[in-house]
TrEMBL record:
Species in which this protein is naturally found: Stenotrophomonas nitritireducens
Main location: membrane
Subcellular location: Cell outer membrane
Family note: Belongs to the bacterial secretin family. PilQ subfamily.
Keywords (A to Z) from UniProt: Cell outer membrane, Membrane, Signal, Transport
Entry superkingdom: Bacteria
One Pfam family from the record: Secretin
Record-linked Gene3D superfamilies: 3.30.1370.120, 3.30.1370.130
Gene Ontology annotations for the cellular component aspect, listed alphabetically: cell outer membrane
Protein name per Swiss-Prot or TrEMBL: Type IV pilus secretin PilQ family protein
Domain Secretin/TonB short N-terminal: 51-99
Any single biological process term in GO: protein secretion
Amino acid sequence: QAATGAVTARTVAQAAATVAARGYSGRPVTFNFQDVPVRTVLQLIAEESNLNVVASDTVQGSVTLRLVNVPWDQALDIVLRAKGLDKRRDGGVIWVAPQPELAKFEQEKEDARIALEEREGLVTEYIQINYHNAEAIFKALTEAKGIGNNGNSGSGGANGGQRENGFLSQRGMIVADERTNTLMISDIPKKIAQMRELIAVIDRPVGKVLIEGRIVIASDTFARDLGAKFGIQGRRIGDRTQAIGGSLDGNSSIINNGIVTNQGLNVNLPAKTYTESPAGAIAYTLLGANFSLDVELSAMQEEGRGEVVSNPRIVTANQREGVIKQGKEIGYVTISGGGGAGGAPTANVQFKEVLLELKVTPTITQDNRVFLNMNVKKDEVDRMLEVTDFGTVPIINRREINTAVLVDDGQTVVIGGVYEFNDRSSVAKVPFLGDVPFLGNLFKKRGRAKD
């Protein structure tokens, strides 16, 4: 629409749809106009909003509209968009003009500002970086606006870049010296002050975090064994000598030497399935001239509880990875060579790390909580495996967790664990005899273990 043309109800409806998604908070107004001059509508809106409205001389034309309970700022936007106008607000004054006129004014204002800066003398400031890295700040300030490719490097690890826009003026330049961790900035005083303020926000001490971990390996064991030893020996001398015992060697001894103890057992099932040796036993021996009866009952119950606590702790800066390790390296031999070509095999010693390790990267949030990205590892040597002709190699038990968690300051949190349960039962018995009620206990042994 031209600035001098009439605005129909349809045009106003289209403008209203365009600005409907915006948020408005002005006092509701109601307008119902037919071919009313735009300048008159602007004057009415100024009275409703208690603001001063200045209209350019080029604001002309009339408008037809009907608005009911519409915020005054929304009504103003509808009228301006329908007439191809725009506004600028400065305090309590609103300036209304055609969009090209406002754009031209702002461009001339920006050109004047740039011309003034170009005539202003340059100053040079040296800013010492205390808590950050000057190279990193230089890179962030230059690459953020797509500049730095036309920079140059000097001796001593200095890097420079000529800016055309962004943080510095067209003539501004920034140089980073790695050795002294200093930034050199050359620009007009206004830009220098802005850069100082920006760097002060970046170059500040980072928070430190103390992380303490507890790795608990707990074990609870229970074992019970019941067993029996049973032996009968006998000898009969006559036309045919007869002997009974627990073994052929024992029978030969009975025939030659008579009845003595420890000549072999018919049933030898002591309580040693899950325990090392019986804690209690009772034995009975009946010995005659040509007869011997040996009975031994043994029992063992074993309970154990163990706990291994590892307590690594580390202090690290905000968003910096901290690592602490403790452990040893286990050596073992590997063999190479000795193939079909007739080469002799070569022994090589290699080492495997067995470590307690805590690796964590903390991030302090705005509400003083800590986000932890952590890896905890606890290795231990289970046993050494014997390899014929090549020595031993270690078998290593590994426990590791890799997780991320958000915690409060001073809070303790359980991040994970593994529960293992092993329940074993066993019965060893003499066939048939072990199934006899009551007396069958003399011909069997029982064991049970829980870990």
